[in-house]
Amino acid sequence: MTDASQTKPASGAALHWRALESLYASAPVNSLFASRLEIPGEGVSRIIFDVDERVFHAAGAAHGTIYFKMLDDAAFYAANTMVSDRFLLTTSFNLHFSRPIKGGRVIAEGKWVSGRRRVLVGEARLIDEEGEEVGRGTGTFMRSQIALSGLPGYRP
């Protein structure tokens, strides 16, 4: 057991990751979803979503917009771990649906693939409660002129 005086201070990268988690939680759109972002390391993200009938289409499964939201967010935050000064913008995103989501807990796993300067590529996959992949996507993200430090939700 260690006390606070023996623990190492968080690295600059870890502070950036915690600030990105705070940014995610502060976004008004995310108040519409039961979700939370976890960034365990550089180039990866994990978003836990609880999907229920409020996001279903008429045939009783999650609407495609929910797949996009989960996949885009996971790939975006994985890519934004690589950029500590600017907010990224999604410039394109391709998604593939493999199974319907009938509700429950869904994990979006994001991963940075390439790029560090102007354009970054990230990918994500969705895993349902049974451990099955239900969708995947790949996106490109561009550095914006928006400084992360100027966003009220970004708190290192």
SSE blueprint:
Elements: H1 12-26, E1 34-41, E2 44-51, H2 64-80, E3 86-97, E4 104-114, E5 119-127, E6 133-147
Antiparallel strand pairs: 1-2, 2-4, 3-6, 4-5, 5-6
InterPro entries: HotDog_dom_sf (IPR029069), PAAI_dom (IPR003736), Thioestr_dom (IPR006683)
Protein name: Thioesterase
Pfam families: 4HBT
If you had to describe this structure to a student in words, what would you say it looks like?
- There is one protein chain.
- The protein has 156 residues and is α+β, with helices and mostly antiparallel strands.
- The chain has a single domain, classed as Roll (Thiol Ester Dehydrase, Chain A), CATH 3.10.129.10.
- It has helices at residues 12-26, 64-80, and strands at residues 34-41, 44-51, 86-97, 104-114, 119-127, 133-147.
- Strands 1-2-4-5-6-3 form a 6-stranded antiparallel sheet.
- The two termini are 27 Å apart.
Short description:
The chain is α+β, with helices and mostly antiparallel strands and 156 residues long. The protein has helices spanning 12-26, 64-80; strands spanning 34-41, 44-51, 86-97, 104-114, 119-127, 133-147. InterPro entries: HotDog_dom_sf, PAAI_dom, Thioestr_dom.
